[in-house]
Amino acid sequence: MAIVKPFKGVRPPKSIVENLACLPYDVMNSEEAASMAAGKACSLLHITRSEIDCEPGIDIHSEVVYNKAVDNYNHFKKEGWLKGDSQAKFYIYAQTMDGRTQYGIVGAAACQDYVDGIIKKHELTRPEKEDDRMILTRYTNANIEPVFFSYKAVEEIDQIVESIVKSQTPEYDFTAEDGFGHHFWVIDDAKTNQEIERLFKEKVPYTYVADGHHRTAAAARIGAEKASQNPNHTGNEEYNFFMAVHFPDNQLKIIDYNRVVKDLNALSSSQLLDKLAQHFIVEDMGTEIYRPSQLHEFSMYLQNHWYKLMAKVGTYYDNDPIGVLDVTILSNLVLDQILGITDLRTSNRIDFVGGIRGLGELKRRVDSGSMAVAFALYAVSMDQLINIADTGNIMPPKTTWFEPKLRSGLVIHDL
Question: Of 302, 281, 323, nearest to 376 (Cα)?
Fold first, then answer.
């Protein structure tokens, strides 16, 4: 069963939270981070992307950059921009997008649960990204940013969250520049905190990494590293835990993650359509944007036209957690067999576009001439994600896109 416990959060005062809170480190490059932090001395990007305060062009994985993150973290504390809570507690973090709100419990997950498979993953990690976040955690001795977890909904936990949300004014409540709302409650009542911890231990057999596989893996490695360095290690030290926001699965919605390809692999448009017809029912939908409406249906944008592609029976395997996925169908039957793209992780002929940018972005990329064809997919469901994690499978690259992204800086977990 899952171990999730309260912790003494390090948080900003209400007056600066909007300027301090920022998007996660991995959704931007250095130039974008510098632009986002411009005029905001207290932006957490000075810690999570501390290269913005170093010489231009510096190696973002250099010791200078990590030391700058530590200096800035200490400076934030000295200035009172970050202050520690005196008691361990849980927090509620809610996000609103398009009129829909999802409510998560912010708590400290156990590193050992990741080792033991209680915390389940569905993606592979890249060593260089994992190392980067591990080193930042080692230098700052803190989980600066939370990871995004899910769990199968528990009615008793939902009731506690609903009671607090209805009866308490949120500690933080703001709408970010992207239009998404962020709401944050502090749970001060000791009995409520104890009850939440008990419910996770008794009612939640597994938790699932939704977004943040690299930070999760890095946190587990830091826990093991610190344990090996402590001759009096007991397993109860704070470094044995890391910060995660736990959302019930029935409140989450995965959005589509689409593909654009630079060339047609020496095929003409008519030849591509002919080859697609072997495995798909192909229908020209005209010039208006067309969005897939069901599993195994795709849309393709090619030469100013949108096409509906319906996978023929026998081209997918609904009883196979991976074979049922539309990303698998597209990868095997189109990207590999027809367009000659065999490795999505390394090919420079393909790019990926999060559904948050809309299908208009696919059209723009093709119309600009930078891409030759675009494919839109029907979004993966939470049931599919959990099934893949439960069966020990790994999703193909760039399968899930969660939105809104968690804002970093609402609370930090000191180790």
Answer: 302
